[in-house]
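Protocol step 4 of 6: record predicted structures for both targets in the notebook before any analysis. Target 1:
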Amino acid sequence: MLAVNKPPGISTAPRHRHEGGALWNRVHGYLGRPPKIIHRLDHFTSGVIVFGKTSAAAGALCREFRERRAEKTYLAIAQGGEWGGGAAAGGVTVDAPIGDYDGHKEGRAVRGDGKAAVTDVRVVATSAGPQLLDAGAPAPLIGPGLGEPERARGASAALCYPRTGRTHQIRLHLAHLGHPIVGDDLYGITGPWIGRQALHAFRLKLAHPSSGLPLEVEAPPPGDMLACAAALGLDLSGVHDAR
């Protein structure tokens, strides 16, 4: 297997066989043979992702994800510094089904007839200011009330642990809590702090496909996430020790 720290702004896989520049193409060039795709990250999400080098490894890794034994941890920088429900103490769980967003091709929505989706969230840092609406603008699919000034005061850094793997799951679930991701051009507030959604695949725990031994891979937050956190007054020094 091969673990890669994906940069933001590139796709996991090419949309058609003649397209270049995707992460799969780069890994292909590095290995000298086509890798096996195990899972995917959104175009603008950075962080750790694994590929299979052989069919046997890919089969074992795919079972890990299919049976939900692989533990994924994402770091998000979200709007709003005040949380309820114990998110900063023991964490909160979002159990909200996800389906299509009517009238928008790429968008998704929390809706009762959607597919089951569950995310555990733990806040690791908060900041009381600034007022994000002073320098940013709500994205087009932002939820009701989330663009109001009292909901845009301050920011937070949160670790998110998705139990399922729905499209835009973490982005939607944080917005559903009233804390959409900073820089999210669909569900959050965009502005000068970062040029993409501030979401990073931080840590991945799984069983090694050959030995079966526990394996943990971590990708440190990239420069744009660190700069975003600093601009919003968030201290990320404790993120690496959080579980």
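Target 2:
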Amino acid sequence: MSAASALVRRAASSTIGSLFAAQTRLFPERVAIEDDAKRLSYAALDNAVNRAAHAMMRLGVRHGHRVAVLSENRIEYLVLELACAKVGAILACQNWRLSPQELQHCIDLAAPSLIAVSERHARLLSRISIGTIPAIAFGPEWERALNAAPDHAVEADIDPEDPLFILYTSGTTGLPKGAVLSHRAEIARSFVMPLDLGIRSADTILCWPPLYHMGGTEPALCALLTGGRVIIQDGFDPIRIAEIVTRETFGWLSIMPGVVGALIAALERNDALPKGVGNCGVMPDLVAPHEIARVTKLLDACYCNTFGATETGTAPLSGNRIAPGVIPDNLAKAPSPASEIRLVDADDNDVPDGDVGELAMRGPTLFSGYWRDDAATAEDFRDGWFHMGDMFCRRPDGCYDYVDRRKYLIKSGGENIYPAEIERVLLGDPRVADAVVVRRKDARWGEVPIALVVARGAIPDVGELARRCRAALAGFKQPKEIRVVSPERIARSTTGKIQRRQLEEWIASGES
């Protein structure tokens, strides 16, 4: 590379940390982030971020090191995110809903140099083995570390392709995978998201979805990179949200599947009159159509007709919306900006309009593969396109109808669950000869897992199997029903493949 080319590349190499610092220079006194107890300007937040970066480095964290965080939504969480961005460290965002066994796998996979934990989740962390990894607690210990650190900016050589986050996704083998998100991907998502969701420059974002999830972290980063304000909320509180929308305006308000009914009830109970909401919601496929109509009428807001993933961001198919008060009769998706889309057959050949194919995409919002899993990365990125495992049919008007999933997956309240995650636990019981998990439609969560087990000898106690699942799996992965069935009931093809669709139909029929 010539000296001139190197200078050009350097000038184009913005990162999450440098873009946040640019907003600080523009709007030092503007409120950047707040919760019930504290409010920080951009200058104050940047000061805390710089101190946190130096504090981490004093604890041995360097460029490329992983920092694990196990915490509820709080200001320190976003400070840590931005501090990692400035150091060049990778934040491994731990899901506190996981069981200790699952969390142990996630920590071992990331192999962090430091763990940050809140008081609320310290007990969960104590139930796993972290060896000699140092841990720092949010609260007085964290504040002491920041107060003892300098507040000048950290000078680090960071490339936009360097990883920034590891967000965990469900795995087909039954254990979570770590999706790697680079600075480039997060920057792209921060500028595509406004087009998909209607977030405006200097908007306020209500951050109630968990920050270990893209639905929490990415809108918050989008706000901080565009001069906006982040209101941190510790989880979903429909009464509080109903109150906030009466005094704050939002270009977009996050409403995840599974909570729409509770928010409707809170809005109606309080006769809430929203100050102004442009758009709301995500993933309407998992929400009852009449609930979409009710919540959008109450908020006087469109519902975002999204289809994305941790690996892709809101892209590739989140480009249209459902009008307020309308009960949608179809949920055809429009392409998002900054994504190229193909529908391909089993041999990765393009399919014509009207035929069903797997959605493959490429674009700047894409993740950088799975942490320490080259085989899965190579398989999903074959031919230089990311294959999502979701089947669509393209209409002549350029919109896409969702058909099914190539990889059998249960989407419950916005969370992904692979049957193997539950089957692995059930098959670990010596009294279980076979176990199959399928999905069942659910009015609140969209879909829920149902487990069918075949006994090995004496019939196992269903309650004991349920307790085994509770001990090993996150709450949202718990089977809503466990049935002991005969071996003949587990429908299989002539090649031995489980016929999950046939089992779904049997469960839906209500037959015993």
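Step 5 preliminary note on target 2. The chain is about 30% helix and 25% strand. The radius of gyration is 23 Å.
Proceed to step 6 after PI sign-off.
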